[in-house]
Design brief:
This protein has about 90 residues and is α+β, with helices and mostly antiparallel strands. It has one domain (about 5-85): 2-Layer Sandwich (YaeB-like fold). It is built from 2 helices and 5 strands, in the order E-H-H-E-E-E-E. It has helices at about 10-20, 25-35, and strands at about 5-10, 45-50, 55-60, 65-70, 75-85. A 5-stranded mixed sheet has the order 1-5-4-3-2. The longest helix is centred in the N-terminal third of the chain and has 15 residues, at about 25-35. The N and C termini lie far apart (about 35 Å). The mean pLDDT is about 90.
C-alpha cells in the first residue's frame, strides 16, 4: 500500500486516457522514483533534468517517459508534469 499522493497534470491525464494506460502503473513508477530520489535502493530509472527544468526528474518506464516535479517528502506528494512516448524526435 502506498501512502504517496500522485497528481497528474491535465496534459498527463490526457495522455493516459488517449493511450488507454493504467494510472496505477504511472503511480507505482512515480512512487519508486521518489523512493530512489530519497536514497532507497531500487531499480527505478530516473534522471535529474538540466535547467530550466532543474526541479524535475525523468522516469523511464519502457518506451514511456514520465516527467515529475521534485517530490515533497513532508507531504508525501508527487506531481506528474508530462508523459510522452520515447521516439526518435524526443528530447529535441
Amino acid at each position: 500500500m502506498s501512502f504517496w499522493e500522485v497528481g497528474l497534470s491535465r496534459k498527463a491525464r490526457k495522455f493516459v486516457l488517449k493511450n488507454h494506460l493504467s494510472e496505477d502503473n504511472i503511480v507505482s513508477a512515480c512512487v519508486l522514483a521518489a523512493l530512489k530520489i530519497s536514497g532507497e535502493a531500487n531499480n527505478a530509472d530516473i534522471k535529474k533534468l538540466h535547467p530550466p527544468y532543474e526541479n524535475n526528474y525523468r522516469v523511464r518506464v519502457g518506451d514511456m517517459r514520465i516527467v515529475i516535479d521534485k517530490p515533497d517528502f513532508h507531504k508525501l506528494c508527487i506531481e506528474v508534469v508530462d508523459i510522452e512516448w520515447r521516439t526518435s524526435t524526443s528530447y529535441k
